Amino acid sequence: MKTTILLIEDNERNRYLTTFLLEKHGYQVFIAEDGRSGIDLVYQINPALILLDIQLPEMDGYAVALELTKDKQFQIPIVAVTSYAMAGDRERILAAGCIGYIEKPINPETFVMEIEQYLLPRKPQSAQENQHD
Ligand code: MN
What we know:
Strand content: 15-25%
CATH architecture: 3-Layer(aba) Sandwich
Mean pLDDT: 90
Largest sheet: 5 strands, parallel
CATH class: Alpha Beta
Distance between the termini: 23 Å
Number of strands: 5
Shape: globular
Low-confidence stretches: none
Number of domains: 1
Strand order of the largest sheet: 2-1-3-4-5
Helix content: 25-40%
Bound molecules: manganese (II) ion
CATH topology: Rossmann fold
């Protein structure tokens, strides 16, 4: 089964590039174009990771992260992907419940590697699977 990633992003070009890169690396990408439908999708698909744009119409990324992490049991890692680069934003992003921050424009060469550090560790391969080495 493919690892699912939820991308909450209102910009079509960013959605296209991010989805392209993630699908190329074998991930299944779900997309929400605004915060509210993003939150709904989280509970429907239970993704392994949430990539969250901060600058979103109506409900911004801070509000999305705060609402999701209001539940102290919430365990899905949320990574902000945003062009906001002003001093203090990183702190605000982390305070809202994100575990990390990737700056836009994303670097297509390193983006997947960057997001993978935030994925929860997968089950180790069984000994049998390793016998082919
Ligand atoms: Mn945006």
